[in-house]
Amino acid sequence: MLTNLPNLLTLSRIAAIPVLLGLLYFHDPVNRWIGLGLFVLAAVTDFFDGYLARHRNQVSALGRFLDPIADKLLVACLIVMLVAIGDVRGLALFPAIVILAREILVSGLREFLAEIKEPLPVSKLAKWKTAIQMVALGFLIVGTEAGPPFLPMELLGDAGIWIAAILTLVTGYDYLARGLKHMS
User: Fold this and answer.
1) Domain 5-180: which topology?
2) In whole angstroms, what is the distance from residue 13 CA to residue 118 CA?
């Protein structure tokens, strides 16, 4: 079970996190582009692990457990690192905090609902939120120093993170409202 391809893809996403953070720690344009490639690869594995698990009939309890953790670890660790190295600063800190808070809230809500055997499926809007968030984080990984001079990487990343945070609030509220119905 641990060695089926979908679970290996999920584990590879977790294993990529320290490498990505290490690349970002050293302010080098080449590291930024390698980091972006690694991040894109990790994000793509998020799609393929679920797709392969369903189509190969390899859905497992371990995969259902690890997949959302891998997603949240990747996003949370990346946001914290981008804040630590000063690539997310100023007003962009607020959407970063909103995104992190929502991830914790939804994780706790899913855990509670799992105990009472009530699923909380991912909404289409939440999938859009994730896509926008990943693109925004990609711009922030490359940053202004490594990005092409004609593209305002920081501005695009900051704008994307704000859009993702707004969608985060909407989807977080939706999930919370659905979850609260089962708490009375």
Assistant:
1) Four Helix Bundle (Hemerythrin (Met), subunit A) (1.20.120)
2) 27
